[in-house]
Amino acid sequence: LTDVSAFQAAGNLLATADDVAVADIVVAVESAIVERFGFRSEAFVRTSEQLAATVAGVPFSDDQLAATEGRVQVTFLGEEPTDEVRSAVADLVPADDRVVIGQDVWYWLPRAGISTSSLKVGAVEKIVGPMTMRTLATVEKVLARL
User: Fold this and answer.
1) Beta strand pairing status for 131-135 and 98-101?
2) Mind listing the pLDDT tens digit for each residue in 94-145?
3) Would you put residue 135 in left (φ > 0), alpha (ψ -120 to 50) or beta?
């Protein structure tokens, strides 16, 4: 990895990785975290193309966005959820919020912000497995820096 830099203070790392498999980057980053900080943490690696597809894939209409006070949350997943997982998560979503689960990401549009939503994110994580959440604006800013 070259040109490694942090973006914001939320665990976002940017890097150039020519001819390196994503799986190898995940192992390298997770190993470096253990070595440097003494604890294990999941790494979620996405290429610039994947981030662009995530931003382009926001499933909410302009009307849906305008009808809320919340910001779109983008949650990166470690693996593609099964139909059973999708169904279990759907059962947790409050009527006022919108959640759409994609292949390796779920989008959440809370009605009035994440702190006022009754969606239990910890319960979702127990169902989907390791995940990491960012606002859509943060993902767009990361993409703009690549």
Assistant:
1) unpaired
2) 999 999 999 999 999 999 889 999 999 999 999 999 999 999 999 999 999 8
3) beta
